[in-house]
Input
Amino acid sequence: MNASELQKLLDWLIDGGRSATSPKSFMADTCERMVAAGLPLWRVGVFVRTLHPEIYGRSFIWKPGAEVQIGTVDYKVLDSPDFHNSPIIIVFQQGQEVRARADDPQSARFPIVEELRAEGVTDYIALPLYFTDGTIHASSWTTKQSGGFTDEQLAALRGLNTPLSRVIEIINWRRMAANLLDTYVGNRAGERILGGQIRRGHTETMNAAIWLSDLRGFTSLSDRVPAETVVDILNNYFDCQVAAIKKHGGEVLKYMGDGLLAVFPIDEYVGDEQQVCSHALEAAHESRASVANLNYPIGDAVERFRFGLALHVGRILYGNIGGGNRLDFTCIGPAVNLAARLEKIASQLGRTVVASEGFAGICREGWSDLGEFPVAGFSRTARVYGLVDEKSAA
Output
């Protein structure tokens, strides 16, 4: 063991590993510094549970001379036999280290250790990573060294584990904050909030295609079925739209009961409004088909659903709005208000998808002129367009 290199590594970790610019580079730098200090590492894994509605945890795997592999697992892993027969679950649940030497018959109970032994691994140890909030995460260390890790090498790994845990916790919290913001306010808004745009009045303007949709008959539905069923229906209904919106470059800003507000940002310097509006229209077609295929068993009947969607394009004010220390990152402006009014007109006409004159003027194909309509709160009437392949259900 090289005591000098080991101390340099320890100092680097205590300083936060600041020369590493990403989680991947931090993992690679840490392992390479360990090898330079005399630790004969082969495969190193870090396993961190996260706070995410779909992802249970993330893994970082390092091997000498290879790029760090980052993976994610969803909550289905909790039902996986491989996970329940892994040393990692013991670390997670009991906070105990697990040692599995290749020459120990007891190690055969861990499939992962058997797989590694086939690669020539002679020793495996999983260590708990204790975070300051009390949660337990895990790391695993393997070697191909004849006879496995020495006592001195194991002591070095255990000694480095605490400062390593602190840095991994910081990295994890940063990512968790980004994930939570992405989940609750959207990617674009999340980036701005993390970038420091957190004060009331911090706003900017941008051009965007605006999407505002609403589930038809939601009030009646809420009165007929249990609240838990309503929530499940809403989740399925929003799934029909969100996947299409994200696929085509849009961002969901807000859920308002059964309503959904999304934007498709337009880069005014590139001049891509025609492409952006085309993408929004493609998402509308896909969402319309998905909602039409959505059915939900309620008692002896099967409920089918309809929704209304208004598409508009215009300039919006985007940023922090609210009172005191309770803010909302959202968009407002006449363009958003008009989209909301158009959605109500869609309901009156029994239409699924309608568009403003501005939107239909950019995406010219596939629209029929439905006429001019008075718009509440606006001094002028608005010309409304509907999809030619759709008849009024009124």
Notes: The mean pLDDT is 89. Residues 151-185 form the longest helix (35 residues). Residues 190-387 form a domain with the Alpha-Beta Plaits fold (CATH 3.30.70.1230). The radius of gyration is 28 Å.
